[in-house]
């Protein structure tokens, strides 16, 4: 077989263009492919929603890859066991109601399960802004390459429409902070209208508050995972990921409820 370089180029460009064009109209755009973003995307896709995940880095999984201080293991609570087992991950009991999981396996199976359910994941592509109109409602995302951001180039972004957006960008709550910065007259539905920022580590309290904090904070914008705790000023948890998974599932449930006619 003769390998023609232009054939490789053609296959890549055509496939990318065709699938990216299909994602210009979404039910849900998820910003961030960490544990909560991947979980939300899987449940949404399984329910029949058109969903795509946009991850600014060249990898998925967020903080799961590093486990605890580069020991590639994470801990999951009994409450989230089912969510992890649905992806095929092996869980080993490590205490009352606790399980230890290989971090690499958790990331790999979470991403594969989301894709198998029908979600699409775009890497190297970050949500740098939101489309806000139609009566002050989030109705799309503004995208650019991470390489453009890193290089400091002035390159205009592209945008797509989405009925809902989930901010699962993690500790920095990037999408929510962008909304607050770009449109100071708009108010997040968080009591005082600001992104509070996460508090110091308190694993038990942070885990308990995470699902409660997973909610719609502005019309069309849902927060999930550590974004939710950062927006509402709750505690960080460290290498315990049960709450992140539960938050992702709750974000999907809420999104599906909001998508209903």
Q: What would you say this structure looks like, in words?
A:
This protein is α/β, with parallel strands linked by helices and 261 residues long. It has helices spanning 5-22, 35-46, 81-85, 103-117, 146-151, 174-182, 203-213, 226-232, 242-259, and strands at residues 25-31, 51-55, 73-77, 92-95, 98-102, 120-123, 125-133, 137-145, 158-167, 199-201, 216-218, 221-223, 235-236. It has a single domain, classed as FAD/NAD(P)-binding domain (3-Layer(bba) Sandwich), CATH 3.50.50.60. The chain is globular, with a radius of gyration of 18 Å.
The radius of gyration is 18 Å
* Secondary-structure element series: HEHEEHEEHEEEHEHEHEEHEH
Residue-averaged pLDDT = 93
Q: Major β-sheet, in short?
A: 8 strands, mixed
Counting structural domains, the number is 1
Count of individual helical segments = 9
The unreliable regions are none
Strand count: 13
CATH class: Alpha Beta
- Class of secondary structure makeup: alpha/beta
CATH topology: FAD/NAD(P)-binding domain
Give the second-level CATH assignment, the architecture.
3-Layer(bba) Sandwich
Q: State which percent range the strand residues make up.
A: 25-35%
Helix content: 25-40%
Q: For the terminal residues, how far apart are their CA atoms?
A: 53 Å
CATH superfamily assignment? FAD/NAD(P)-binding domain
Net shape: globular
Notable features of this structure?
261 residues; alpha/beta; FAD/NAD(P)-binding domain; eight-stranded mixed sheet; three-stranded antiparallel sheet; 13 strands
Give the helix/strand layout.
Blueprint: H1 5-22, E1 25-31, H2 35-46, E2 51-55, E3 73-77, H3 81-85, E4 92-95, E5 98-102, H4 103-117, E6 120-123, E7 125-133, E8 137-145, H5 146-151, E9 158-167, H6 174-182, E10 199-201, H7 203-213, E11 216-218, E12 221-223, H8 226-232, E13 235-236, H9 242-259
Parallel strand pairs: 1-2, 1-9, 2-6, 9-12, 10-13
Antiparallel strand pairs: 3-5, 4-5, 7-8, 8-9, 11-12
Helix pairs in contact: 2-4, 2-9, 7-8, 7-9
């Amino acid at each position: 077989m003769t390998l023609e370089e232009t054939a490789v180029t053609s296959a890549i460009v055509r496939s990318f263009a065709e699938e990216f064009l299909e994602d210009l109209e979404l039910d849900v755009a998820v910003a961030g492919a960490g544990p909560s973003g991947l979980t939300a995307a899987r449940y949404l896709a399984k329910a029949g929603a058109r969903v795509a995940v946009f991850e600014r880095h060249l990898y998925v999984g967020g903080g799961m890859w590093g486990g605890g201080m580069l020991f590639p293991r994470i801990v999951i609570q009994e409450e989230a066991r089912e969510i992890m087992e649905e992806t095929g991950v092996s869980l080993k009991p490590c205490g009352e109601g606790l399980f230890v999981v290989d971090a690499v396996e958790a990331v790999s199976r979470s991403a594969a399960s989301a894709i198998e359910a029908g979600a699409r994941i775009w890497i190297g592509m970050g949500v740098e802004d939101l489309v806000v109109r139609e009566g002050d409602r989030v109705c799309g995302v503004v995208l650019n390459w991470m390489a453009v951001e890193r290089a400091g180039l002035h390159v205009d972004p592209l945008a797509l429409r989405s009925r809902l957006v989930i901010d699962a960008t993690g500790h920095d709550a990037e999408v929510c902070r962008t909304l607050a910065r770009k449109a100071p007259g708009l108010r997040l539905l968080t009591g005082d209208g600001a992104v509070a920022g996460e508090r110091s580590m308190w694993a038990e309290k942070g885990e308990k508050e995470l699902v409660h904090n997973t909610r719609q904070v502005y019309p069309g914008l849902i927060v999930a995972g550590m974004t939710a705790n950062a927006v509402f000023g709750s505690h960080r948890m460290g290498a315990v990921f049960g709450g992140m998974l539960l938050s992702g599932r709750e974000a999907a449930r809420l999104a599906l409820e909001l998508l209903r006619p």
